[in-house]
Amino acid sequence: EIVLTQSPATLSLSPGERATLSCRASQSVSRYLVWYQQKPGQAPRLLIYDVSNRATGIPARFSGSGSGTDFTLTISSLEPEDFAVYYCQQRSNWPPITFGQGTRLEIK
Amino acid sequence: EVQLVESGGGLVQPGGSLRLSCAPSGFTFSSYWMSWVRQAPGKGLEWVATIKQDGSERFYVDSVKGRFTISRDNAKSSLYLQMNSLRAEDTAVYYCARDGSRSNSPTDYWGQGTLVTVSS
Predict the structure, then answer these.
(1) Which residues of chain A does B64 touch, with a Cβ-Cβ cutoff of 8 Å?
(2) DSSP-derived pairing of the beta strands A103-107 and A10-13
(3) For A18-31, how does the pLDDT look when each residue is reduced to its tens digit (9 = 90+)?
(4) Nearest to B47 among A55, A96, A100 (CB)
(5) Is the pLDDT of residue B24 over 90?
């Protein structure tokens, strides 16, 4: 089973700042690394797939990078609506499909 | 517009059964892998099960193997999750999710979820 470890658990930033979220895999996931955003009471929303491809309708301030076992989600300039929980997910070597434990991005 | 609407959740006693349903619309259901993902109260996301387009391949997280069965009816455009021998730790919101046309495709759409509570 591939374990995904996200850091930090909580990130406190202000609107306009840059956010950098990390996801580390216990073994290579090739390019099958995905990022989701989830707001309270809502279903997750696909942000980034295949490491760096933005999903339809996702603003350009969201970007993904990385390779092998280390991946990053960057939000270049935080908007108020970006404060949420972010999950990474791998679908490289499955089953099982695994998620990271999440990073909570909160307003400072 | 892609929509996924879950139903069938509710309160059930430990050891009981429930059948969740998902009604997709806005896309050709038979062309997509489909999954169920759950989220326990205040916790993260956990993959539960995935089924191939024609139902010929099904995969489960270890904790539900032998208890849960994912199925689909392409003629009725419906996805199901039969849950037997339910335990307290199965309490969660269960999301129906659309994957892509390949086994490695990401989940790109999610329903709003249906709450399953296992308690006496």
Answers:
(1) none
(2) parallel
(3) 999 999 999 999 99
(4) A96
(5) yes
Beta bridge mates, A90: A33, A98
Give the pairing type, strands A10-13 and A4-7.
unpaired
| Distances from the Cα of A2 to the Cα of A21, A47, A92, A94, A96, angstroms | 19, 21, 9, 8, 8
How far, in whole angstroms, is CA A17 from its chain's centroid? 17
Half-sphere exposure of residue A80: CA atoms within 13 angstroms, side-chain side: 0
CA distance B90 to A60: 38
Count CA atoms within 13 Å of residue B36 on its CB side.
33
Beta strand A19-25 with A4-7 is: antiparallel
How many C-beta neighbours within 10 Å does residue B17 have? 12
Residue B49 near residue B61, CB atoms below 8 Å: yes
The answer to whether residue B45 neighbours chain A at the CB level (below 8 Å) is yes
Residues of B whose CB is below 8 A from A97 = 35, 47, 50
Chain A with chain B: Cβ pairs closer than 8 A: 58
Give me the pLDDT at residue A93, please.
85
Q: Is the dihedral of CA B49, B54, B56, B57 positive or negative?
A: negative
